[in-house]
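Shape is hard to put into words, and the shape of a protein is harder than most. The fold becomes a row of whole numbers, each drawn from a learned catalogue of backbone shapes. The outcome of that step, for a single protein, is printed below.
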Amino acid sequence: MLQSKSFVRKTKGGKVLKVVREHYLRDDIYCGASFCKACDSSTARLSSTAATILIVDTNVVLNQIDLLENPAIDDVVVLSVVLEEVKNKNLGVYNRVRALCSNSMRKFFVFSNEYHKDTYVKAMAGESPNDRNDRGNGGSAIRVAAQWYQNHLGQGTHVLLITNDKENKRKATEEGIFAETVESYVKSLGLPGLLDLLVHPSSEDVGMEDVEDLRPLKRKVIYTEHKPMSEITSGLHRGIYHQGKLRVNRYNPFEAYVGSESIGDEIIVYGRANMNRAFDGDIVAVELLPQDQRHEKSLSIADEEDEEEEDVHLAPSSADAAPRVTNLVQGSAGDINPLSSRPSGRVVGIIKRNWHSYCGSLEPMPMPAGNGGVAHALFVSKDRRIPKIRIQTRQLGNLLDKRIIVAVDSWDCLSRYPSGHYVRTIGEIGDRDTESEVVLIENDIDARPFSSQVLACLPPLPWSVSSPDLANPIRQDLRHLCVFSVDPPDIADVTNFVHPGTPLDDEAAQRGTSVYLVERRIDMLPKPLTEDICSLRADVERLAFSVIWEMTPEAEIISTRYTKSVIKSCAALSYVEAQARMDDSRLMDQVTTDLRNMNALAKMMRLRRIARGALTLASAEVKFQIDTETHDPLDIGMYQIREANQMVEELMLAANVSVAEKILKHFPLCSLLRRHPSPTKEILEPLLRTAAAVGIDLDVTSSKALADSLDRAVGDDPYFNKLIRILVTRCMTQAVYFCSGDLSPPEFFHYGLAAALYTHFTSPIRRYADVIVHRLLAASLGIYKLPDIFQDRAQLTSISDNLNYRHRNAQMASRASVELHTVIYFRKRPTDTEARIVKIRSNGFIVFVPKYGIEGPVYLMARGEKGGGEWLVDEQQQKVKKIDGSISYGVLQTVRIHMEVVEPQPNRPKLQLTLDQGHVA
């Protein structure tokens, strides 16, 4: 059946066009119930014994997704009209619903009610599809589908419409459709724990008599009401408000920054009142404060106990009191002047929320009287930047000693804390596996086993190079060459096994990268590929994708060739093994000789790269020795970089540059490249001040100038230069993937490498970016046709964005894993050691511990200390000193500290660093 609809619309040019839309209706769309005799059971997803089938409306899906994901909720029909509305309103929830509907272990079925002749609801005259769907919250179409299901399946099956929309529920009842609220249905299941998952409806939905109201009868206004979007849009247009992403200071949760393009600077937002219920990562509208209400960027370190103090004194005033800090600047004549204020502001509205689920634990509290009652509790996130969240629970006794996940539901101006709901329990607080899972959840790392659909894409094991592989004209036989690998594995031909559009490819694209934790690795691809088929093992034939250079003895590249190949490695070496071979003068075999020759070439390549302006930076990478049985850390120290590491790095960099040039030449608009933007003036400002305070003049006009000035930054202390390079590394912007068609060539530049072009090609086993680049390179060589996705610029940009998101999250997870295992290691090992001051604050300083690669705050005065405990900060000289001049500390100064694990707040263990004032270097 064909439904036609015509309407007219006016173009931007003023022309009037007649638009005709055709809508095809069918009568062979199946209901999804396996017991239905009228439909094809091969498409069935609902239980064969289902006594009740649920039909959920749009708001139930949007607001109750945590409940729907619980295994206790099944036999759910998701209408296509609902799915489309959810997609338009919240893509994250849409993806979660789609995952439920495609999960073979769950009984969720998508019914295409929009294309069934008996359930299609025609739009009214002049009504858009969205208007039609909004008619009773999509109610008309949803009720028609519910009525059809009841008639279609007969009286033996109970079809129940779940809605919190009171008007939709009233109409459903009048039309003879069974309908219940979410809470009423969940209560009927007799599973009290499910009630904790509920997001309680707002007052405009089901009447509040259906909700256990948690609010006190009388509440005062704590925060300022957010401006409506119409007023925000107007204010942004007139320059009254400024838009940007709010970032909360990890050392001080009461201080945030909003990067504003409209004023070209960061706006400081100080105090919870001025943050006005904004979360870290929210896109906000900010109003600048008058000059007399502005704050300096805080020069103090917030302690955990400060959070309680701040919460107690919340007020709806923009003049939120900041900690008393004295700032000094020494003028040329030795006079002392106050620092000029930087822009300060307050949040007036939320443009886009960044709420998600958070990991943490409940604040300890006594059990309420009676059993099974509702308890009101405060959830404390492990992330200090997140405020406490108020939840209600019927299982308090089971949750007090657990790490749990909580989602935020709302935060009105009458409430000191946001309201949320319990999602699930992770495990016992302090258990290593539990805390490791918290790291993964907080950083959105998918550590689930690969699905059967993904594993079905793999070739059967044992796998080996076949005769057709050897006979393939696209593949060059390099088995006669002395080929060897130095960890990490070299360039395997992963795309020979990962084909575009397959479940394996989709999974790799979503994961984006492998994630390296202290005690384990979470692979982007299944282990048969990473540890066998694509692993370059000694004396085993493997498929590879090779970049072959012809070089002069001076390491100048004369020619470059790219080919699919077959190799047979004669050695698979670790960095330690490769270095030992090069250092052992007794060894003169071919592998060792080739290693030395390659190292000599790599050194020349490295020197030329540095001469062009590439930065040689340093990082505080930590290495643990882990017990193979208990997985507990046995030792901790700085990761040692050897010549073998630098050799492999240099050759990989050169291969990546060569491939970037090749793919961009053939595909100028759809190549995946990697750029590194120059650091901004604002980011470099603290570094320059620190360098000047210790007598170093850093020239940051270009990467070449910075590299040269770093080479000159030497002193009597052999560690001094490395420390300066670590500080410079902290100031670098994040390198990012991008589609070449999205930017102009000057923006392709990689600042750190001083390279006009760069990409990632050398690690397709662990990075999906390299998989894409392999496909581009193969297409540029005429080996394969470029997949259709490369014609879709928007899709390529979306892929780049996801790769950047996954790469950053993998880095954050790795750092969090290091922090976790650092606490585990030092829990029973209080230690005294040396540290270097890297940041000065009014109540202490941030130190870096070279021996262990640890950074953390050291407080100069005890909490509540008065009088003689007052300190002065000299920003220009980068010193903090007592007001009587008796003691002072300066940046990069060596101090002795004591490290010990403490728990200042329940369930929040931390490594505490305290100053040994009797041993100041």
Q: What stands out?
A: The domain at 830-920 is CATH 2.40.50.140 (OB fold (Dihydrolipoamide Acetyltransferase, E2P)). Residues 134-138, 203-217, 308-340 have pLDDT under 50 and may be disordered.
